[in-house]
Amino acid sequence: xxRSSHHFFPGPQTGVPxxxxxxxxxxxxxxxxxxxxxxxxxxxxxxxxxxxxVPDHIxxxxxxxxxxxxxxxxFVAFAYSVKSRDRKMVGDVIGAQSYASTAKCxxxxxxVLGLLIISAVIIAVIVINVTALSQI
Length: 136
Fold this sequence. Notes:
Elements: H1 20-32, H2 58-66, H3 73-90, H4 93-134
Helix pairs in contact: 2-3, 2-4, 3-4
């Protein structure tokens, strides 16, 4: 018994199985014949506009809403983040960037104020405990 492999399709064999597109193209060449070089070759260029990435900061706003929410800045930032995402879905990139910028600014303020308040509370608790222990 001979163990030789027979190739059903002519052409270079690289060991990679042919894809559907390759098989279809080879079939078309076999049926229609090789393309004739008599006419000019026409090409079409399709420009696909890449969507501008606008960060909406919605996760950061949600975090600030749940954990650092002084003066409701986290909640307002979350509202602006949702507005930014809505504008992005509609296709208004400039509006989305405007709302995202406002949400980022509010998130920064909420985070800074929240950290300052937490730091002040921790320092106040330490000072109160130290003064209470020193009176004993």
